[in-house]
Design a protein that fits this description.
Strand order of the largest sheet: 2-1-3
Radius of gyration: 21 Å
Order of helices and strands: HHHHEEEHHHHHHHHHHH
Structural class: mainly alpha
Number of strands: 3
Strand content: under 5%
Length: 370
C-alpha cells in the first residue's frame, strides 16, 4: 500500500504539479501576452505569444522530467517527447476515431490533439524508461536520447489517440450540459474546479485538457460553443472563490501576507489546515456555489484553456475571461469584478462569520505556517 501511495503521489501530485508549471511558463504566459497584444496592438507581444504557445509541449516535457529527477540527457530528450505527444491525437467525427495518431486533418473530421493530457502520460513513461538506461553505458550520449525518444514515440502513438478520445467526450459533455443546464452546471463546475484548485493537484492542467482548442472546435461544430465558454467561466468563478475566499476569511491569522500569498498565489496553502479541520473549507466552497451560476446565468462570463483553472493566481483567470470576451462593456467589467473578487470575498466572509458564531471555526484554524 505504501508503494502505491508513493507512486500516486509521484505521478498525480508531483508530476501533475510540474505540468502546471510548464503550462504556466508557456501556454498561459503566451495567453497573457496575446491578451496584451489584443489591447495594445504591439506586434512584439503577439510574436512572444505565438512562440510561447508553440513551446507548450516542450515546456511540459522538461517540467515533468525535472520534477521526476531525470538525468540531463533524459530531461532534454523529454522536451522532444513533450512536443510530440502534445501534438499527437486523432481525427474524430460523430463520436468515432477516423484516423489513429493523426498529426493533421484531412477534411473528414476534427483533429483532436491529446494536448497536455497526452504529454503528461507519454513523458512520464519516456522519462522513467529513459532513467533505466541513463548513465549505464559508455555511449550514454547516444543510448539515452535514442531510448527516451523511441519509448516516447511508442507511448505517444498508443496513448495520445485514446486520451484525445476521452477528452473529446468530456469536453462534449461539459459543453452540452452547460448549454442546456447553465444553472446546474454553473454550480457543479464552480464548486468542483474550486475544490480541485485547493487540492494538491493541478486545476490548470485539468482545464487545459478539457477546454482545449480542439474541444472548442468540436463545440462549434455541434452548436454548443456558448455552453463551452460559459463552462470555462464557471470554472474561473469557482477558482476565484477559493483563493479570494481563503485570503479574506483567514485575514485574522495571516494578515496582508495571507491576502497576497492566497489571493494572488494559491489557496493550496490551506490544505494542511483543511486536513486538520475540514469545516474551514465550507465558506469558500459555498461562495463558489453562488458565484458559478451568477457567472453563467447573469453576466455570462466566458473562458477557455488553462486560464479557466487558474483563478486569481497572477490574475490569470480574469485575464482569460477578458481574452474570451466578445465585448467589454460596463456590464462585463461589473460582472468580472463581482464574480472574481467582490462576491467571493463578501460571501466567504459572511458564511465564515456564521460558522464562527456556531463555534465551528475558531481563530487560529487557518494560520499558515511561515
Amino acid at each position: 500500500m505504501e508503494t502505491v501511495k508513493k507512486y500516486l503521489h509521484r505521478y498525480f501530485i508531483d508530476a501533475m504539479g510540474a505540468m502546471a508549471l510548464g503550462l504556466f511558463a508557456s501556454l498561459l504566459i503566451g495567453t497573457i501576452f496575446g491578451t496584451l497584444f489584443k489591447y495594445t496592438e504591439l506586434e512584439f507581444l503577439n510574436t512572444i505569444a505565438t512562440y510561447a504557445k508553440a513551446a507548450t509541449g516542450m515546456a511540459i516535457g522538461v517540467a515533468i522530467a525535472h520534477r521526476l529527477g531525470a538525468h540531463p540527457l533524459v530531461m532534454f530528450s523529454c522536451a522532444a517527447v513533450g512536443a510530440m505527444s502534445n501534438a499527437m491525437g486523432a481525427i474524430v467525427s460523430d463520436g468515432s476515431i477516423l484516423k489513429w495518431a493523426a498529426t493533421v486533418g484531412d477534411g473528414s473530421g476534427v483533429f483532436y490533439a491529446a494536448g497536455p493530457a497526452g504529454a503528461f502520460f507519454a513523458v512520464i513513461v519516456a522519462c522513467e524508461i529513459g532513467q533505466l538506461v541513463s548513465k549505464k553505458t559508455k555511449v550514454d550520449i547516444l543510448v539515452t536520447p535514442v531510448v527516451t525518444l523511441l519509448v516516447g514515440f511508442v507511448a505517444s502513438w498508443l496513448i495520445c489517440p485514446l486520451v484525445s478520445y476521452v477528452m473529446y467526450y468530456l469536453g462534449t459533455f461539459v459543453s452540452l450540459a452547460t448549454t442546456f443546464q447553465p444553472l446546474l452546471m454553473g454550480i457543479v463546475l464552480s464548486v468542483v474546479m474550486g475544490v480541485v484548485l485547493t487540492l494538491p493537484i493541478s486545476s490548470a492542467a485539468i482545464c487545459a485538457m478539457i477546454f482545449s482548442e480542439a474541444a472548442f472546435a468540436v463545440s462549434l461544430m455541434n452548436g454548443t460553443s456558448e455552453g463551452f465558454l460559459l463552462a470555462g467561466g464557471a470554472c474561473v468563478a469557482g477558482c476565484c472563490a477559493q483563493m479570494v475566499g481563503f485570503a479574506v476569511i483567514s485575514f485574522r491569522e495571516n494578515r496582508w501576507g495571507g491576502i497576497v500569498s492566497q489571493g494572488l498565489g494559491t489557496s493550496m496553502l490551506q490544505m494542511g489546515n483543511i486536513v486538520k479541520k475540514p469545516v474551514i473549507w465550507l465558506a469558500p466552497t459555498l461562495a463558489a456555489a453562488v458565484t458559478g451560476p451568477i457567472s453563467t446565468m447573469v453576466f455570462q462570463l466566458k473562458c477557455s484553456g488553462v486560464a479557466a483553472g487558474m483563478g486569481t493566481c497572477g490574475l490569470v483567470g480574469p485575464i482569460g475571461v477578458i481574452d474570451a470576451a466578445e465585448k467589454t462593456d460596463a456590464m462585463f467589467w461589473i460582472g468580472l469584478v463581482l464574480v472574481c473578487i467582490v462576491l467571493p470575498a463578501v460571501l466567504s466572509f459572511i458564511f465564515n462569520e456564521i460558522f464562527r458564531k456556531l463555534g465551528w471555526i475558531k481563530t487560529g484554524d487557518m494560520k499558515i505556517d511561515a
